[in-house]
Amino acid sequence: ESNISRYHQEFLELELIGVGEFGSVFKCINRLDGCIYAVKKSIKPVAGSVNEKNALNEVYAHAVLGKHQHVVRYYSAWAENDHMVIQNEYCNGGSLADAISKLQAEKRNFTEAELRQLLIHIAEGLRYLHSMQLVHMDIKPGNIFISKEKRLRAVDYDSADDGFDEEDTVEEEITYKLGDLGHVTSINNPLFEEGDCRYLPAEILHEDLAHMPKADIFALGLTIYEAGGGGALPKNGPDWHEIRNGKLKELPQYSRDFNELLKLMIHPKPEMRPSAVTLIQHRVLCPFGKK
Ligand SMILES: Cn1cc(CCO)c2c3c(c(-c4ccccc4Cl)cc21)C(=O)NC3=O
Known about the structure:
With 291 residues, this protein is of the alpha+beta class. It has helices spanning 6-10, 50-65, 96-105, 112-131, 157-160, 202-205, 212-230, 237-244, 256-265, 276-281; strands spanning 11-20, 23-30, 36-43, 74-80, 83-89, 134-135, 144-152, 170-178, 185-186. The strands form three sheets. A five-stranded antiparallel β-sheet has the order 1-2-3-5-4. It has a two-stranded antiparallel sheet with strand order 6-9. A hairpin with a 2-residue loop joins strand 1 and strand 2 (23-30). The chain starts with 5 loop residues before the first helix and ends in a 10-residue tail after the last helix. The relative contact order is 0.12. The mean pLDDT is 92. The chain binds ligand 809.
């Protein structure tokens, strides 16, 4: 390899935004197009190892997925020196895990409307992924990223005569995006690594791979439950099994219908859980849908 790294040639590193066993993620500016990207640098996996399969899975998945509003966009990936580098869309609002921690610190919760928006956005991303015969297999708050965009709202001029100031014309639009495709696999020939066991349904643990898309629905149900203040999820033990038997603590600050929907999403029988398609049409999520 050339010892001048493509990474340093093409990018100016702004800040380190994440570190893990996966590697390090930097917020970078591309010297050519001047745009900001999230760039993950990881140790190049040993040829033929499981890590290499995962690393290639991630790039294959991104390459197949192209552009979707609720999936973090991929731009490029390459190997240099002993590293794998992947350049993705930078989401400026942090991860859902960050947002949950912040709300916990402020002793606040998402409103039901905000949880519905989160659920619809990620269900849309899953519908796209599943339609491409792929499954994510590691849905969790840390893998959902947030983009915030300030939007000018059309001002109704009759209210403008008393002058309008900043806050009533600019509003923040939030978009949730599915990220970290490191565990993505094909629904048909699943060679996969288990994701985080806190979000893993029992059937996958028992190697029953007949309904893999429903494993994503299960993990999304627990992700929404956690965002709704359900507390830290068990990694094992009786509490872990309690959830896999379909029992979930009621979240009193949300409607019965919403609580019921979450319970349906984590139903012990995968075929009982809604698909991403039926989830999006679910009456709880489009209340005005009822004619
Ligand atoms: C830790 N971390 C923080 C962020 C910024 C959130 O405001 C982040 C991002 C990504 C990733 C990421 C995840 C998995 C694989 C590749 C990347 Cl770049 C990780 C990220 C990614 O793909 N896009 C991101 O914004």
